[in-house]
Structure formats: C-alpha cells, structure tokens
Specification:
alpha+beta, 3-stranded antiparallel β-sheet, binds zinc ion, 3-methyladenine DNA Glycosylase II, Chain A, domain 3, binds iron/sulfur cluster
C-alpha cells in the first residue's frame, strides 16, 4: 500500500517527540498504530527517527534537544508577545509559534501556548488570578542571582562584571544565561559542576555557541581542569 509522507502540524510533531523523550509509546497520527522509534546519537545532526508502516517515517532534528519551557521562560515569552515582540526559543533563539486563546474563567485574559519550530520545545501557560499572589510570596529564600545573569548583556560585558570573582563566578558569567537546561543543569548549576570538576564536558551550553565554549575552555585550562 502506498502511503504518502504525511504532513503533520507542529503541535502533532511536538507531542510525538514529547512521548519519545518521556519513554512512552508513540502512535502514528495517521494509522493509529505504534511507531518504532530510535535516537540517532551523533555529534553532527542528532535525530529522533520514527518508523511506521509502508513509507511512513519521521525525522526530528534534535540539536538542541526538546525541552518543556519553565514558568520563568513562559513569563518572558508572554511579556514579549504582549509587547508585540517575537518571543524566541531560549535554546536556539528561533522565533516561536505562539497561540493564545481566551482564558476560560477570565474573559479579559489569555492562555498561551508556544512551540519552537526548530527543536520542537514547547510550553503552555494558563492564566489564573492566583499567579500574582503566588509570585509575591517568595517560595523559598532563593538568593539573588548575580547582575550578569541576564541573557541580554553581551558576553564581554558579563565577563567584565565577573572579573573579580572566582573560577565558578567567571564560568557562570560565560554561560548564555537563559537557564534553558539544555546542558542538563541551569546556568549556575553547570558552572558549579565544571568548577568542581564534577562535569568535564565544557561544550554543553547550546545557546552560548562557540563563543561560550571557547571561553569555558580557556577558563578551565587556566585553572588546570582541562589540558
Ligand atoms: S548554561 Fe545550560 S542552562 Fe545556561 S544557557 Fe547554557 S545550556 Fe542553557
Ligand atoms: Zn528551539
């Protein structure tokens, strides 16, 4: 039987990938049958591949890998969207596809959904009137992030701000500051892990690109943690 390569919506693709990363079975939106799924792990262009029957098969570029946006990211995205600026994906800076629907119980407010067309990361925000209250109540005494923890400050300026700090602080300043978790930590956590030697791989900051990577290497070499 000939099955034309189906065209799926961004939403469908994002959901299929979410199932894959959650280690749940993925069913074909076309045939309703399970797909065989696997991850092609390679430095250049890693992909998730899903194979169905006949010619049905899908490939998802996964550099960077799909994430679910945090509440903090969503707040920033909604702010941009409201200011008619294009919200972008914190991992690869692709303009996001945003959808807003009227909030169910609050007709003047909106619920939001964002999907990245490149890495298929996504996140949803439901408006509640509790949001501001919750924000006012500090959940845990979280220490203030350093002033350089702001992705809009260029790298040289951030390094200047951290110049009197220790290795950890300098590594922290070298990160892209989006807390996107693509490295498997937040920015602070990744810097800490590198500074203690617990993490050896300094190439994990996806949004920092070559700029961050070179600087991390330089700092770690200077400290004798990388040869
Ligand atoms: S250090 Fe990690 S969390 Fe921070 S921007 Fe880079 S990849 Fe994202
Ligand atoms: Zn993305």
């Amino acid at each position: 039987m000939f099955l034309p390569p189906p065209r799926l919506t961004l939403e469908q693709r994002s959901q299929m990938l979410q199932k894959f990363w959650a280690a749940e079975p993925v069913v074909s939106p076309i045939t309703g049958r399970s797909l065989r799924t696997f991850y092609v792990d390679r430095a250049f262009n890693p992909q998730v591949v899903m194979v169905g029957q006949g010619r049905e098969h899908y490939r998802f570029d996964q550099r960077p890998r799909q994430i679910v946006y945090s509440q903090g990211h969503l707040k920033t995205m909604i702010r941009s969207a409201k200011e008619r600026a294009n919200p972008v994906c914190p991992q690869d800076f692709q303009p996001l596809v945003s959808k807003r629907t009227p909030a169910v119980r609050f007709p003047v407010e909106w619920d939001w959904h964002f999907v990245c067309p490149k890495c298929l990361s996504f996140g949803s925000w439901q408006y509640t009137d509790k949001a501001d209250e919750a924000a006012k109540k500090p959940a845990a005494p979280k220490k203030e992030a350093p002033a350089f923890h702001d992705e809009t400050i260029p790298l040289p300026k951030r390094m200047e701000m951290a110049k009197d700090g220790d290795l950890f602080l300098k590594l922290y300043a070298a990160m892209a500051q989006t807390d996107c978790t693509a490295c498997g930590y937040d920015c602070e956590g990744y810097a800490k892990a590198l500074s203690t030697g617990a993490e050896k791989n300094f190439t994990l900051c996806v949004p920092g690109k070559q700029e961050t990577e070179s600087l991390l290497k330089q700092l770690l070499t200077g400290a004798g943690l990388v040869k």
